[in-house]
Amino acid sequence: MTKPIKNTSSDFEQVIMLITEARNRVYSKANAELVTLYFNIGKIVSEKVSIGNWGDGTVNDLAEYITEKQPLLKGFNRRGLYRMKQFYEVYSNEEIVSPLVTQFQVESNNQKVTPVVAQLEDNIFTFCKRILSKINWTHHLLILSKTKSIEERLFYLNHCLNEKLSKRELERQLNSATFERTMLGNKFSTAITSKIPTGIFKDPYIFEFLALPELHSENDLQQALIKNLQNFILEMGKGFTYVGSEYRLQVGNKDYYTDLLFYHRDLQCMVLFELKIEEFQPEFLGKLNFYLEALDRDVKKPHENPSIGVLLCKGKDEEVVEYALSRNISPALIADYETKLIDKKLLAEKLNQLSEIFYRNEQ
């Protein structure tokens, strides 16, 4: 067999790319049809059960009837039909979905657009067509089984759409309570300063993939994060590009070295992560602000936004942080980090406690 000439390799790759793109389009269309089908079947089952025409036995009969008529089909057993019913009922309450769905940012032609008008065009199936059908059914099952509130479900739908999450990535976000941690980060940064964008940063960060002992040094933490950079970026969220560790800043006649420096494409700014293996102390902010000033004066390009600093600490007192940040000029966030997964109930309690602190301060 004659081997292809070397200069044809790019042409061959172009053919492979066309095949891959076409296959992805076919898969995407098939998934959209499947999700819409499940939504429509869920509507029928829900309406029949709600008005008392169907009971549990009738749903079983339907499952058996489908199996008899379409024996090669899978997923239409009793359990599957009730999942479709739940799927429809969760996303068919327009009073709940309508005001929230307009917050979605969906990528279209590499540009973020608002996909649904506020009124959903008086048709809840517009939501199914433009949002739900773009997400894999396996992703929907994960979200339905691991979330409780409509806000939480819409949060993960939004992430699936914007970040193109794989099943494994979505499962980790659900298991590590990304919704609660993002809400904590949003609530704190919004209460303290408008300089920190919402929806980007979390609190706490979960580094269970590092396998670090309870007692570890800052260097141990830094090196472990570098070795597990892919998982670290996955935990931070897409949009971050790694710049380097021990990034050198020269001020006067001295050299200073930052811990971990990233660039965020959407924010168009540098994001500096400084690592502390102890509870937050107010003096940590002085060093962080110094680094941010040096980055903005000597490294930042004219078209870029001011740098953001994130202090990762092994614990913090929320009131101490609130005092420390209340007059802080630079955009900075103080976040905990944990080396093990945290119970979602504990994070919910922490969110309530934080709300109470800011409520008292506003009185």
Description:
Residues 200-351 form the YhcG PDDEXK nuclease domain. InterPro entries: PD-DEXK-like_domain, tRNA_endonuc-like_dom_sf, YhcG_C, YhcG_N. This protein is α/β, with parallel strands linked by helices and 363 residues long. It has 2 domains: 10-175, no CATH class; 178-362, Trna Endonuclease, Chain: A, domain 1. It has 14 helices and 10 strands. It has helices spanning 9-50, 56-69, 78-90, 94-101, 124-130, 137-146, 150-163, 167-175, 178-192, 218-227, 229-236, 284-298, 318-325, 344-362; strands spanning 106-108, 111-113, 205-206, 240-245, 248-251, 254-257, 260-264, 269-275, 308-313, 332-338. It has a 6-stranded mixed sheet with strand order 3-10-9-8-7-4, sandwiched between helices. The protein has a two-stranded antiparallel sheet with strand order 1-2. Strands 5-6 form a two-stranded antiparallel sheet. Strand 5 (248-251) and strand 6 form a beta hairpin. The model is unreliable at 105-122 (pLDDT under 50).
Secondary structure: elements and pairs:
Layout (H helix, E strand, L loop, with lengths): L8 H42 L5 H14 L8 H13 L3 H8 L4 E3 L2 E3 L10 H7 L6 H10 L3 H14 L3 H9 L2 H15 L12 E2 L11 H10 L1 H8 L3 E6 L2 E4 L2 E4 L2 E5 L4 E7 L8 H15 L9 E6 L4 H8 L6 E7 L5 H19 L1
Number of DSSP-assigned strands: 10
What structural category characterises the helix and strand content?
alpha/beta
First-last Cα distance: 82 Å
CATH topology of the largest domain: Trna Endonuclease, Chain: A, domain 1
* Rg value: 25 Å
Count of DSSP-assigned helices: 14
CATH class category of the largest domain: Alpha Beta
- Helical content (DSSP H or I, runs of 4+): 40-55%
- What integer is the average pLDDT? 79
Largest sheet: 6 strands, mixed
- Shape descriptor reads elongated
- Proportion of residues in extended strands: 5-15%
Report low-confidence residues grouped into runs of 5 or more: 105-122
- Tally the structural domains: 2
Taken in chain order, the helices and strands follow as: HHHHEEHHHHHEHHEEEEEHEHEH
Question: Reading side by side through the largest sheet, how are the strands ordered?
Answer: 3-10-9-8-7-4
Tell me which CATH architecture of the largest domain applies here.
3-Layer(aba) Sandwich
Pfam family, one: YhcG_C
Organism: Pedobacter mendelii
Protein name: DUF1016 domain-containing protein
Domain YhcG PDDEXK nuclease: 200-351
